[in-house]
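Title: Comparing notes on inverse folding

I've been comparing how different people in this forum approach sequence design from structure. To keep things fair, I'm posting one structure and asking everyone to reply with a full sequence. Here's the target:
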């Protein structure tokens, strides 16, 4: 995923510590957790989403007990969700609305 240079990422909407239940056999956060975190932090009123495409880019593993922050930013009628851990950006999730819908 590419974040447009003109994009302004929001301030974190959520911050939390990684819990043991989020860790898989590799001793890192399970990839599915990032998608859960993205959906848990959608803007109010987003529960009845129009059809969308979801892209996830995993950039850096997140370890047990690390602090995670989640930023949600509208970009060109889509949403970019950035999840960062104590060290850097761990994952980017982009929700692209189909059929000229909007969030």
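Reply #1:
Here's my take.
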């Amino acid at each position: 995923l590419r974040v447009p240079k003109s994009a302004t990422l929001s301030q974190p909407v959520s911050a939390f510590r990684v819990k043991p239940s989020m860790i898989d056999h590799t001793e890192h956060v399970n990839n599915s957790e990032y998608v859960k975190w993205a959906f848990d932090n959608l803007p109010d009123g987003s529960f009845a989403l129009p059809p969308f495409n979801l892209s996830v880019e995993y950039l850096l593993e997140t370890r047990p007990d690390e602090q995670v922050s989640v930023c949600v930013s509208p970009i060109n009628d889509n949403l970019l969700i950035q999840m960062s851990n104590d060290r850097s950006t761990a994952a980017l999730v982009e929700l692209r609305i189909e059929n000229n819908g909007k969030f």
